[in-house]
Each structure stands twice: as C-alpha cells, then as structure tokens.
Amino acid sequence: MRFPLAAALALACLLAALLPAAADARRGPCMVGTEQPRCHVWTGKLAWVDDGDTLHVDVHGDGTRKPLHVRMIGIQAMEQTRYARNSRAGDCHAVEATERLEALIRRGKKRVRLAAQDPESRTRGRYFRSVAVKLRGRWRDLGAIMVGEGRALWLANRAGYAFNQRYSVLTQRAERLGRGLFAAEACAPGPNPGHSVRVWVNADADGADRLYPEGEWVRVKNLDPESPLPLDGWHVRDTGLRRYTFPAGTLLPPGGTLTVRVGRGEPADADEHYWGLRKAVFDNPTFDRRALGDGAYLFDPHGDLRASMMYPCRVECHDPLQGALAISAKPRGRERVDVTNTSGGPVDLEGYRLATPPFAYHFAAGTVLQPGETLRLRMGGDPDDDTPLRRHWGMMEPILRNRGDVVRVTTYTWIELACDAWGDRSC
C-alpha cells in the first residue's frame, strides 16, 4: 500500500513528536553566569560517582535508562585503584576528591547540569562534560569548585576550551594558597621534610614537538646548599596520567640539578634521565581563546606534591628579574644577542631562557651577571669554547630573520623579562 507524500510527511512528524526529546536539543552558556561561549546543555540525575573526576548520570530525555559515563572536562583528580564505595583506595587525595564530589552532588539532590561545546568529545568511552549542581538556588560549576579547593589539577581541553582560562587561574590560586594537593605534608611527613626543591619544565621543544620529544624536559633542582636529596620512589608527571619514577639510588646533590627528558636516548651523565616516551606530553601554551597550557609536578613516595610549575602564568605574574635586564640582537653577519644586567645587584639566569621562536636557548647553572656585565651569545660556534661572558648556541645556520624578528628573555611560565625586535616584528 502506498501513502501520498503529504500523508507520509505528516506521519513522520507525528512519530518524531512521540519520540523522546533529543538529548542535545538545548543550547546555553557553557558556564552559568556568562553569555559566551555557548554549549550543548543537558540536565540529569546522578547515578553514581566513580572517582574525583568521573561519574555516571541518567540524562533527562535521552531515550534510555542507561546512565551516561561522564568524564568531567578540564580537571584531573588523583587516581583511584579501588572504586567500591565502602572500600575506596588510591593515590593520596584521590578518595578525598571522590567524597567531596559526591557530597556536593548529593547536596544538590543529585540533579546536575551537563555542558559541552562538542557533544561527541570523549575519552576512553567517557563523554567530556562540565558538571554543575544547584546549591542555594543557583547552579555551581563543580569543576571550578574542585580545582579552586585544590582537589584536582587543571587539565587543558582543546574540545572544551571554554573552561581552560578559569580553571587554570583557580588552580594557580590554590597552589599559591597551599590548598588541597598543594598543602605541605598533607599525606605524610617526609621523606626529607622541609627540604627545598624547585621544578621547571621546557614544554616547547625546538621545531615540531612531535618530531623531537626529547626536546621537552623537566628539571629538578635541590635548593639546599648543604644536604643532598635522595629521590628514590619520587616521580614527576604532567597534568595527565603520565609519570616518570626516579630509579633507586637517584641522589640530587646539594645545589644540584637533574634533567628528565621526555623522549628516548642514552643519558650523557648521571644528571640526565630519559622518560622513554615516543611522543611529547606537555601541551604548548596558547594566548588565544583556547587558553591552553599544562604543568609539571614532583611527588614524593607518600603522594605529597613537593614542587610544581604551571604555565602559562595567569596569577601574580611577576618575577624578581623584571626590569633587571636589557637585550640587543644583531641579526646580520655573525648573529648574536647581548644580555646586560642593568640592575644594581647580581642576576642568576639559571631557570630562564632566551627565545626566538621556534628556538630557545636555556641558560645553564652558574650563569651569573654582575651589575653592568653583558653576556654575549653567538648563534653559531662551539659551546665547548664558552667562557662566563661569551657563549655559543651551536646553531649550524642563521636563525634570526633580517627583515624582522623578535628575541625575548622569559621565564618558563612565559613571563617576559626583556625583549628586542626589529623590522616587521614588535615586542
């Protein structure tokens, strides 16, 4: 039997009206209280909480009783190893994060608001969603609460960039206030309690990171001038789940520094380690609406976070060397850059870099300029010929663009200390 076209269309419309409403039919602000950017928005009811950044939600109007497996966008809680509610266990801070997330949602009578810029974005079968709960009559973003309390780290998300800027700011504030993960000895005293240590990361390898993962590295410095620091069982990690655990017998001497390179290779000496990964792991920062970035974190065997560095800096972005340096570049002929100490005291350049994208020169330990001194860095030459005030980058070809380029001295969190530009470029 054949139906006229008009009747077929009418029947199709009637069937569509009888079907459950599409789960992504509504649009709204990604973050309550803002207008832009816009997201797909759903509501639902909590089925259960898996851990501090993962849960199952029965989404209203999706036509199924099967809960949606949700991975909270933009945050990374510590990892659990056991998930049953009466026997939860895992890394230090993991269970506390799970219980806090669960308590917040229960306070909101288990009703949640989900949002995503890309409704199909997912990882390991879990859908990326921001999660909000109504507390005291208004929706509250749970991701913001978790990172603001130091219950989780900010994890930049490319598909859900709407949350990156806010979450990174809140995490950096939590770090400065010593909240949650960033509280000293929150897990257990020691080892080596109170031992001062610094960590920084070179997130942007020269050229394409994917082709040169060993160009990404994490550096750890023992700030104690007298006592060594054993690193047996300590580990460094990015904001994701990738970690490098120091082997037994690793000892950081007083004032010493060691480097963990992300890629593969043979260590040149005891101060160099290789993570052994095939791919770069640290996201390069962006200063656009995506607000990408990452961090490096050093944990002791008890799970205490002993040192960290997040980038780019978005909170209290100042540095002691701002205003203390001047640089001048010579792009033609034998390329060079002069770095001058314009302050009234010595400046130590270890932990800083000279950048002219896509390349960066990393100042070594012991690079100290007295007031008025100038360090001359030649782009070519042999680094074996270095002297305290004459350095050689070792580049085989010119890297400064004669028609216009820019050279900066910066921190590894992208705080600018000095800049020189010419031609069609500007600082």
Question: What's a concise summary of this model?
Answer:
By secondary structure, the protein is mainly beta.
Give a written overview of the molecule.
The chain is mainly β and 427 residues long. It has helices spanning 5-18, 94-107, 142-148, 164-177; strands at 26-29, 38-51, 54-59, 68-72, 75-77, 80-82, 89-90, 111-116, 122-123, 126-135, 138-141, 152-154, 197-202, 217-222, 229-230, 235-237, 243-245, 251-252, 257-261, 272-274, 294-299, 305-311, 325-330, 336-341, 347-348, 352-356, 359-362, 368-369, 374-378, 390-392, 404-411, 416-423. The strands form nine sheets. The chain has a five-stranded mixed beta barrel with strand order 2-3-4-10-8. Strands 13-14-19-20 form a four-stranded mixed sheet, with no helix packed on it. Strands 17-16-21-22 form a four-stranded antiparallel sheet, with no helix packed on it. The radius of gyration is 26 Å and the shape is globular. The termini are far apart.
